[in-house]
Amino acid sequence: MADSPNCDLKSLSPLQLFERVTEQGEKVRALKAGKAPKDEIDAAVRMLLSLKQSYKTTTGQDYQAGLPPKDLILINNGTTKEEDEDLVDPWNVQTSNAKGVDYDKLIVRFGSSKIDTDLINRIERAIGQKPHHFLRRGIFFSHRDMDQILDAYENKKPFYLYTGRGPSSQAMHVGHLIPFLFTKWLQEVFDVPLVIQLTDDEKYLWKDMTVEKAYEYARENAKDIIACGFDINKTFIFSDLDYLGTSAGFYKNIVKVQKHVTFNQVKGIFGFTDSDCIGKISFPAIQAAPSFSSSFPQIFNGKENIQCLIPCAIDQDPYFRMTRDVAPRIGQPKPALLHSVFFPALQGAQTKMSASDPNSSIFLTDTPKQIKTKINKHAFSGGRDTIEEHRKYGGNCDVDVSFMYLTFFLEDDDRLEQLKQAYTSGELLTGELKKVLIETMQPLVAAHQERRKQVTDEIVKQFMTPRKLAFEF
Fold first, then answer.
1. In the chain, what are the domain boundaries?
2. Which listed CATH number (1.10.10.650, 1.10.357.140, 3.40.50.2300, 1.10.287.10) goes with 14-59?
3. Could you say which residues of the chain have pLDDT below 50?
4. How confident is the model over 43-52, as pLDDT tens digits?
5. For the segment 87-110, what is each residue's pLDDT rounded down to a tens digit?
6. In what order do the strands lie in the sheet with 336-340?
């Protein structure tokens, strides 16, 4: 006889149903190949048809072998990656294209939605001001359910922001500022609470460091985050190593997520293997938990139905595809997301930067001289081999790292367009473009360093103390 379902099909997630249909299909094929009794084959086929119907009812789409439901397209960690396909997961970013990752393909592969002109215009109407240049220039390029967040805002319903940082070193680089600068803008224009997760537990599990060192890095990174200018009355920063032990609501949500994600799922999504420690396998539930307002009862007065908006780099999306799959089954709203492109290494856009390579980026601790030397020596150029060729043919802004950095940090749209035209025409040389970047980055980093000096240990403690924020729920 065919196996009967070992649990109510209605309790299964779309991905679990997908896996059940796949397994049952393989069983039917095995029974037929082994010339099993007809009644046994018929029972297995009935089970397969029942599972396929349940899958269609749950997802609204027919089962297709090899195509998981849209909200949980799996990452294979590059193991079966085609040669020309970009590798993007929470720990690795690689592409053979000097222009960087093909983000249009990534949108299709991840099943997210492009941030188009209509959405940007709607954001502008909602907030009554010009959108951030990160939106206007496509630096934040993809989203999940941002339209729902705007619906909530326009109907005066609450939502909150959640972003984070994995503290892998004492010094952050300028690329780490991108989600925080954008999140700060979002918090100001929408006037909503913000929670910032420091995943020091994750870094201990993945890196060769002690628990004490991971926690120290978390507090040092918190100073750089605070120096971005967040409002202490509207922002809660927390270390997992600290907060997990003090918040029953946070831990309850972790356990709920853990119960609804199988080992096979987490292996498929994150590429874990049997030799990975159990801490890694269970960690995604910890990154998922801040997506639910009940993880912060002191902020939201115990309310569980407040939607979350997560600005993050696109490599973090696997965590939240998993979260969005689990959320309805534990009675929580799905988090919405805004995805940013990767900030390129100085050596080129084929990889994201590494905090362990001091020459891969400009660090927030760098001196003006170090910034100048790094840009002049290491910033990949889209210019020609000789001045004569450059004057004749012009430079390539699509691969020039100095120009890429300016798209992030030069806020003047007209000035950026002038530089692009001058460099593309050959009027502006590579050395001159690098000089513009140096003159942009030196005061930016120096101003950040001055603000960071004002962030005392006491201020860090205030930001990281669980407390009510300046909102009523």
1. 14-59, 103-346
2. 1.10.287.10
3. 1-7, 71-83
4. 989 988 988 8
5. 666 666 666 666 677 888 888 888
6. 113-114, 140-144, 336-340, 307-313, 159-165, 194-198, 235-239
Residues in the chain, total: 473
CATH of domain 103-346: 3.40.50.620
Using alpha carbons, list the distances in angstroms from residue 313 to 89, 260, 411, 433, 449: 11, 25, 20, 27, 24
